[in-house]
Amino acid sequence: MQSSEQEEDLRLLRESARTLFDRAGGSGRSRKLRDAGGEFDPDMVRELGEAGVFGVAVPEEQGGLGMGLAAGGVIAEEVGRVIAPEPVVATIGLGLGLLRRLCPEHPKLEQLIGGEASLAVAWQERGPGGASADATCRYADGKLTGGKAWVVGAGGTQDFLVVAEADGGPVLVLAEASADGLVTTRRAQADGSSLGELSFSGTPAAELACGAAVQGALSEAVADATALAAAELVGLSQRAFEITLDYIKTREQFNKPIGSFQVIQHRAVDLNVMCEVAQAAVREVLMRMDGETDASIRARLASRAKARAVTAARKVTRDAIQLHGAVGYTDEFDIGLYLNRALVLSAWLGDDAYHRRIWFDAREEEGAAQ
Amino acid sequence: MTDWNAMSDAEFRKEVRGFLEAEYPEELRHLPHRPKFAEIEHWHRKLHTKGWVAPAWPAEYGGMGLNAAKLLIFYEEQQRWGVNRGRDMGVQMVGPLIIKFGTQKQKNYWLPRILSCEDIWCQGYSEPGAGSDLANLRTRAEIDGDDFVINGQKIWTTMAHDATHIFMLVRTDPDAPKKQQGISFVLASMDQPGVEVRTITTLSGETEFCEVFFDNARTPRENLVGELNKGWTMAKALLSFERIFIGSPSLAQNALGQLESFARGRGAFDDPVFRDRFAQAALDVEDHAALYSRFADQLKRGETLGADVSMLKIWVTECFQRITELMIEAAGPDGGTVGPLQVGNVSVDVLASFYKARPTTIYGGSNEIQRNILSKAVLGLPD
């Protein structure tokens, strides 16, 4: 049980984040950005930065608000509710997660918190078969060679944070998006956004950190981002459900609102229960991650959150289309935007089947260790 | 008198756990069936001496006077240790009703007898034509001098064959404009010529449910609790706490523990498909517990629970069923075998768990009824 003071802080944060997104245009703004080519809005990033959104989980001594992942989750839920395309979770979880752990003195940290800089994190790699593979991207003599994949926010970023292999082990380096020998290919996503595929050939980059600490910080940052992505899906599911509930209350067939039919009512209840379980589980996870220092337990908690959130979002967004009937299949109705965004967020950082596997294996290891 | 509520939650939990672990008879842990009173009498005597028979009752009536937070802890510890509820219809159902709506004379007479189990109660609500539609009940009680004369039939009366008394909802005004009106709450002795009990054999071969027939059975008019024709509202007023209790994670948690040890012994975890389904079930239980805590916190803050608490029951009972179905799957060719299956040093009665899970989605308001309630009261969906 969280303290009532903390609960109140989170409530206020939720209110101000919701107001901010609503004032900016809610899901309508997201649709416009998609129609305009799918990139996020740099002005919005600045506004979010000024409002302190990016720094919620950064400790106060590093220039953040020090409110923990629980607060990051509040923000992520609100982002999900309006399906905002800005890489808020990637920035809080990955970008700031790496910088604050590995090089808290770097000026990029402050700029990123303030929304004055954009920074996309490139850490995954694609193997020859197309699936995720071990890292082979090299860093030597100040230059990067190889490739990175599934980079969120690659389109509009000024810089990339790249995790690469060097002679002394893993390194974290900073490369400018306009650097020589860097080719960025965009892969279009269902929601209109894109993921970047980077190819480096002797691309100059500056080393920020090296050694085992990089691997440790990366695992922690990925766990944070995974749990926050779960929170984003929770907000998305909740809003998709509300839209659907409004629709079935007003849409009439056989001279009655379709929401008066028991089969529709029971399906709506099932979606509601899904949303509530997911919200309770993900919020509990974030709260526990804030109080947990053991990295493997934090990772297992994050997997639990993502597994639940993806399961719920899949059920809610797909049933939402069905409950809308034919109009649910049109681009004109917003509910489809939620389905598309859920597809992208579910695939990013692992879907439910993946995370159940990770969760189960971690549980087995813990059991064996005891 | 100990003021339990003044203790910290941790202290209180330790106290309860200590007592249960030291005093609860080993042979009664995780009892797979509902016991007759004789089977658990020795445990009941210990509880009675300790003064712990009625945790929720106010201390002035011989209860522990626990607030909601402490009460949840008490039940959690009972369930954790596999403590049988005992014959608790008196304590859980009729006692609180008498405390809230009964006369002083009724309290003085009935409450001590409930605590001592001198009277053992069963609940006469459901009828053949009044299950989910309980207000449709037809068993009549007519005033005849100083008595009510009762005619009709109750069904699914749990352990009626081992009860001395029945508390029941009866129709006292057949001409009331709405069927919820004209229902009264009366107490009656089972030990009389006009009452006949027949046991019902369930799918699992147990006989815990009964039919009870009333043929000019009598009970004194002073055994009416509360006002005449106001029984429906009273009975409903009692359900608030039960609704979170019925949605508690414990049944599913215990079943999951059983499933895990059984599946491990059977080597079922070698199968990646089984591993995933187990992980799904385990996460379903864990995530339900998160939602349960949210409601429990509400109670602890002294708030009353809304109709949305019904979602706990829906989720956990359906999850419980899936877990017991996985047990059957893990049993492979033994999936139809009656009695305990031995795996290493663990013994699991797969079919007993499976059967135990079936009625959970039916009793306490079927899950379909719960969905009706949620769709109207929480989602505001139209008629």
Automatic annotation (TrEMBL), chain A:
* Keyword NADP listed: no
Pinpoint the Acyl-CoA dehydrogenase/oxidase N-terminal domain residues. Answer: 8-93
Annotated Acyl-CoA dehydrogenase/oxidase C-terminal domain residues: 227-358
**What Pfam family does this protein match (any one)?**
Acyl-CoA_dh_N
Spans through the membrane? none
Q: Which domain of life is it from?
A: Bacteria
Q: Which InterPro entries match?
A: Acyl-CoA_Oxase/DH_mid-dom_sf, AcylCo_DH-like_C, AcylCo_DH/oxidase_C, AcylCoA_DH/ox_N, AcylCoA_DH/ox_N_sf, AcylCoA_DH/oxidase_NM_dom_sf
This entry's Gene Ontology molecular function terms read: acyl-CoA dehydrogenase activity; flavin adenine dinucleotide binding
Q: Does the keyword Oxidoreductase apply?
A: yes
**Known cofactor(s):** FAD
Q: Which key words are in the record? A: FAD, Flavoprotein, Oxidoreductase
Family statement:
Belongs to the acyl-CoA dehydrogenase family.
Q: What is this protein called?
A: Acyl-CoA dehydrogenase
Organism, per UniProt?
Answer: Paracoccus solventivorans
Organism ancestry: Bacteria, Pseudomonadati, Pseudomonadota, Alphaproteobacteria, Rhodobacterales
From TrEMBL, chain B:
Report if keyword Flavoprotein is assigned. yes
Cross-referenced InterPro entries: Acyl-CoA_Oxase/DH_mid-dom (IPR006091), Acyl-CoA_Oxase/DH_mid-dom_sf (IPR046373), AcylCo_DH-like_C (IPR036250), AcylCo_DH/oxidase_C (IPR009075), AcylCoA_DH/ox_N (IPR013786), AcylCoA_DH/ox_N_sf (IPR037069), AcylCoA_DH/oxidase_NM_dom_sf (IPR009100), Mycobact_Acyl-CoA_DH (IPR052161)
**Keyword Membrane included in the entry's annotation:** no
GO molecular-function terms, A-Z: flavin adenine dinucleotide binding; oxidoreductase activity, acting on the CH-CH group of donors
What's a single GO CC term here? plasma membrane
Q: Which residues form the Acyl-CoA dehydrogenase/oxidase N-terminal domain?
A: 11-117
Domain (Acyl-CoA dehydrogenase/oxidase C-terminal) spans 229-378
State its cofactor: FAD
Entry superkingdom: Bacteria
Sorted alphabetically, which keywords does the UniProt record give?
A: FAD, Flavoprotein, Oxidoreductase
Q: Where is the Acyl-CoA oxidase/dehydrogenase middle domain?
A: 122-216
Which PANTHER family does the annotation name?
ACYL-COA DEHYDROGENASE, ACYL-COA DEHYDROGENASE FADE29
Family assignment from sequence similarity: Belongs to the acyl-CoA dehydrogenase family.
Q: What is this protein called?
A: Acyl-CoA dehydrogenase
